[in-house]
Design a protein that fits this description.
A: 313 residues, B: 299 residues, mainly alpha, 17 helices
Chain lengths: 313, 299
C-alpha cells in the first residue's frame, strides 16, 4: 500500500493550540481522525469557568473546526496532573466532570496521571479512575517527564488497584525504558513523537521492530510547544522506508488507536469512511474558519500534495 | 409566582407513551432505570450522566406521531408540538420532568448546570422542553440567550413550534426572535403565537429590514408582512403598495393578506382593488400558513 493511500489516526493532539493550516496538512497527509485529550493550556487556569469553557470548546468549536477540513475530532475529558495541585480548584473540576464525560464523542477520561507525583496528584488521579470505571470509559494516562519510569509503573499499579482492566488503559509518552513494563502489564503503550525530545521517529521504528505491533500506538501530542502535527504520518513513512510491512504500520498508526478508544462505543470507522463532505460556508456560533476574501471549500476536501512533500528530512 | 405551565405528571405520561411506541424494549428499559434514579434528591450525577448518554442507548429517530397525539399534546399544553422531536430528545425531556422540583433552588441549579455545559443535541432538548418545565418565569433569560445562538438546530428548538417564547418573553426578546427567524431564513408560520404577540415596534423593525434588503437589490420573504398587517399606517402602506407591485404572485398574495388584517381605510381600499385575491382570502383559500409553506423551498 502506498503511503499516500494510508489512513492515520492521531490519538493524542492538542488542536486548540494549532492552526487551520495544520488541519489542512494533516488531512492531506492522511489523518482521518484525531483525539484531543484535555490538558493544561501552558499556564494554569485560575477559575472553574475556564475549565468549563475549555471542555465545551473541545466538544464544540474544535470539533466543528476539524470537520471543516474533513477530519473527525474526538476528545477525552479530565483534570490534568499539573492542575490537580490546586486543590481548591481541583475539587470544583471534579464536580464538573460528570457533566462532560458521557457526552457524544468523548472517548475516554484523560489525560490524567502524575506530573510531580504529589499527594494531590495521586488523590485526583484515583478519583478520576473511579469515575472512568463507573462510566465504563477508557483511561488515557499522561506519564511524567521526570522520574518517568517509576511514575509510569506507579500509574499502572494504581489503575489496577482501582479495578481498571489494563485493556481499558492507554499509557502515553512511553519510551525504551517503560515500554516493556507497559506491554507486559497488558496495557496499551502509546508513544509520542516529538522533534528533539520524548521519542524520535527513528527510535520508534526500532521499537516496532523489537516489540511488534500489538497494543503499540503512535501519536504526536502536538500542542503550543515545539511539536509536529504530522508526526504520525511521518513516522509511518519512515517505518515503510525502513522495511516495516504496511500492515504493521497500519496497526500502530491507525487500528490500535481505534481499537483502544473504540471501547468507549463513541468512535467507529464508519464515522469517517464516507468521503468527507466539507462545507466551509458553515458557521459555528457565527464564527467561520475562513478569513476575509477566502473561498470556502464545499464538497470533498481534495488532497493537493503527495505525502512525501510533507516529509521533512 | 407561577410554578407550573403544564401538569408535570401528565406531560411525563404522555411523552413516555410516545417514547415507548417509537423505540425498542432495551431503550425503554434503560430509560426506566434512569428515570427511577433521577427522582432521588441527591441524584445530580445520575441526571448528568443519563442526560449526556441518552442518544447512545435510545437512538436519534424522529418520533412518528398520530393526529390524535398531536391534539393531545396541544390540550396538555397549548401550543406544545413534539412532531419533530427525536427519541433522544424525548428521553432527555422525560429525565428533566423527573427531577424533583419541590425545592426550586435545587431544581434550577440542576437545570442551569445542564444548560451551561450542554453541547448541541443537549441544547435542542433543553430549549424544546421549556414549555413543560416548572418555574417557567425563571427561564426567560435562557430563552433570550437561545435566540442569540447561531447554531441552526438550537435556534429552531426555541423559535419554532415552541409556545414558551410567546407566553414568557418580553417584547424586546420576542421581536428579536421574529426578526432573527426572518434573518436566518426560517419559516415564520412555525412560530407559535406570532399574531398574538405582534406589535407596532416589530412592524417598524420588519419594515426597516425590508428597506435594507430592497436597497441591496434583494428580495424579502412574503411571510415578513404577516406581523406587519395589523399595524398598517400611512408609512407602512408604502411598503405594501410596493409588495403589491412585485411581479411574483406570492408577494401580491402576501400584500393582500396584510391589508385584510388591517382596519386602516387605505388598506381596505387597496384590497378592494384586488377582488380576486380578496375573494380567495374570504373563502380561506389564501392564508398565511399557505404563504409560509409555499415560500419554504426558497427559505
Amino acid at each position: 500500500m502506498a503511503p499516500e493511500k494510508m489512513m492515520f489516526i492521531d490519538p493524542h493532539i492538542h488542536m486548540t493550540s494549532r492552526t487551520t493550516d495544520d488541519y489542512a496538512r494533516m488531512q492531506e497527509a492522511g489523518i482521518v481522525a484525531i483525539i484531543e485529550p484535555s490538558f493544561w493550556l501552558g499556564q494554569p487556569r485560575t477559575e472553574i469557568g475556564s475549565f468549563k469553557d475549555y471542555f465545551s470548546s473541545l466538544l464544540g468549536w474544535e470539533r466543528f473546526r476539524a470537520s471543516q477540513f474533513g477530519i473527525k475530532h474526538y476528545c477525552t475529558i479530565g483534570l490534568n496532573s499539573k492542575e490537580a495541585n490546586n486543590e481548591a480548584l481541583a475539587e470544583q473540576v471534579m464536580e464538573l466532570l460528570p457533566l462532560f464525560v458521557l457526552k457524544e464523542g468523548v472517548v475516554g477520561v484523560g489525560e490524567i496521571g502524575y506530573d510531580d507525583q504529589t499527594a494531590a496528584e495521586d488523590k485526583y488521579y484515583r478519583l478520576q479512575l473511579d469515575l472512568a470505571k463507573e462510566v465504563g470509559l477508557p483511561v488515557q494516562i499522561h506519564t511524567p517527564h521526570r522520574d518517568k519510569k517509576a511514575g509510569t509503573i506507579r500509574s499502572m499499579k494504581v489503575a489496577m488497584e482501582h479495578g481498571i482492566k489494563p485493556h481499558m488503559v492507554i499509557v502515553d509518552h512511553n519510551n525504551e525504558e517503560t515500554v516493556k513494563d507497559t506491554l507486559d502489564g497488558g496495557f496499551w503503550a502509546a508513544f509520542t513523537i516529538y522533534p528533539n525530545s520524548k521519542m524520535g521517529n527513528e527510535r520508534m521504528v526500532e521499537i516496532v521492530k523489537q516489540y511488534g505491533t500489538e497494543r503499540i500506538i503512535v501519536n504526536s501530542s502536538a500542542d503550543w510547544g515545539v511539536s509536529d502535527p504530522l508526526s504520525v504520518p511521518k513516522t509511518a513513512s519512515l517505518m515503510l522506508e525502513r522495511g516495516i510491512p504496511a500492515e504493521d504500520v497500519r496497526m500502530v498508526c491507525y487500528q490500535n488507536a481505534l481499537d483502544a478508544f473504540g471501547q468507549s462505543g463513541q468512535m467507529n470507522e464508519s464515522d469517517w469512511l464516507q468521503p468527507a463532505n466539507v462545507d466551509q460556508r458553515d458557521k459555528f456560533q457565527d464564527n467561520s474558519v475562513l478569513r476575509g476574501g477566502q473561498t470556502p471549500v464545499v464538497g470533498e476536501f481534495k488532497t493537493r500534495n503527495e505525502l512525501k512533500e510533507n516529509i521533512v528530512k | 409566582m407561577q410554578v407550573f405551565q403544564a401538569d408535570v405528571e401528565k406531560s411525563r405520561d404522555f411523552l413516555y407513551e410516545l417514547f415507548k411506541r417509537n423505540t425498542s424494549d432495551e431503550a425503554t428499559d434503560w430509560l426506566n432505570d434512569k428515570l427511577e434514579k433521577v427522582k432521588g434528591a441527591n441524584s445530580a450525577r445520575e441526571l448528568y450522566w443519563a442526560f449526556s448518554a441518552a442518544p447512545r442507548f435510545v437512538g436519534k429517530t424522529v418520533l412518528q406521531l398520530q393526529e390524535s397525539e398531536l391534539s393531545k399534546a396541544d390540550v396538555l399544553r397549548p401550543g406544545f408540538n413534539p412532531s419533530k422531536w427525536t427519541t433522544d430528545q424525548t428521553a432527555r425531556t422525560l429525565l428533566l420532568l423527573s427531577i424533583p422540583h419541590q425545592d426550586q433552588n435545587e431544581f434550577l441549579h440542576k437545570l442551569n448546570q445542564l444548560f451551561s455545559t450542554a453541547e448541541m443535541g443537549e441544547l435542542v432538548a433543553l430549549y424544546a422542553s421549556l414549555p413543560l418545565l416548572p418555574y417557567p418565569g425563571d427561564f426567560k433569560l435562557r430563552a433570550a440567550e437561545g435566540i442569540r445562538t447561531n447554531m441552526g438546530t438550537v435556534f429552531e428548538a426555541i423559535a419554532l413550534d415552541n409556545p414558551y417564547p410567546a407566553d414568557y418573553l418580553d417584547e424586546g426578546a420576542w421581536n428579536q426572535l421574529v426578526l432573527k427567524t426572518v434573518f436566518v431564513g426560517k419559516p415564520l408560520y412555525r412560530i407559535y403565537g406570532l399574531e398574538i404577540r405582534s406589535n407596532p415596534t416589530l412592524a417598524r423593525i420588519l419594515s426597516d429590514y425590508a428597506h435594507e434588503r430592497w436597497a441591496a437589490g434583494r428580495t424579502v420573504t412574503p411571510e415578513l408582512w404577516r406581523p406587519v398587517g395589523p399595524f398598517l399606517n400611512a408609512f407602512l402602506m408604502e411598503d405594501i403598495k410596493r409588495v403589491f407591485a412585485h411581479p411574483e404572485q406570492i408577494q401580491q398574495e402576501a400584500a393582500a393578506l396584510a391589508c385584510s388584517q388591517s382596519n386602516f381605510i387605505p388598506a381596505k381600499e387597496l384590497l378592494e382593488a384586488h377582488p380576486v385575491l380578496k375573494n380567495k382570502i374570504e373563502t380561506g383559500e389564501l392564508n398565511w400558513n399557505y404563504i409560509g409553506r409555499k415560500s419554504l423551498p426558497a427559505n
